[in-house]
Design brief:
Layout lengths: L3 E10 L3 E10 L2 E10 L3 E6 L5 E9 L3 E5 L2 E3 L5 H13 L1 E13 L5 E2 L1 E12 L5 H6 L1 E8 H9 L6 H14 L7
């Protein structure tokens, strides 16, 4: 059976999201489906240095508290790679010479229309940024961790942001393709 939308109304909207209620007919019959739509796609950046360490940021999020994540943000209407470059610089003070889009994913696809792009950034170096953007973003620390340590952080729940976990998996597939050759 396919879903049929019989009607739709926006119940909330701001510059980041809109929320609508759809009158639907689906596998269980008629009902109401709430959908969150992101106004712009998001980008996630796995920045890796020459020693194959991954750059992480610690954020204090209103909804989930403090945790480690990969740098990320909204596209604000830009092309995804341009936004990824901007977000990496704003959140970490880093720039990179090599960029590759390594994945595309959808956040919370059961309730949201939220396309996301994952980038691998290599050839990273620090800039002279003063860190003002980090404070505005709620970032209180930036750290480098070996790939094995990052995997342990996921296992131990230190990295619990689902999109960061997915971005790191894309990076692992890209950086260690031999793990797939079974």
């Amino acid at each position: 059976m396919t879903w049929t939308t019989r009607g739709s109304r926006t119940v909330y909207e701001n510059r980041w999201i809109s929320v609508r209620e759809d009158q639907v007919t689906g596998p269980a019959g008629d009902g109401v489906y709430g959908v969150v739509t992101m106004q712009h796609p998001a980008v996630f950046i796995v920045a890796v240095d020459d020693a194959e360490r991954v750059c992480l940021v610690r954020l204090d999020r209103y909804t989930t508290g403090t945790g480690w994540e990969v740098p990320a943000g909204g596209t604000d209407g830009e092309e995804p790679e341009i936004a990824a470059r901007r977000e990496l610089r704003e959140e970490t003070g880093l720039v990179a010479t090599e960029w590759a889009m390594i994945g595309r994913m959808n956040a919370l696809n059961g309730i949201a229309e939220a396309p996301e792009y994952v980038f691998l950034a290599r050839g990273v170096r620090a800039t002279a940024d003063d860190g003002a953007e980090q404070a505005l973003e709620g970032i209180d620390a930036v750290r480098w961790a070996a790939l094995t340590d990052v995997l342990a952080m996921v296992r131990d729940g230190e990295i619990s942001d689902g999109e960061s976990v997915a971005a790191l998996l894309y990076a692992l597939i890209h950086l260690r393709p031999e793990l797939l050759a079974r």
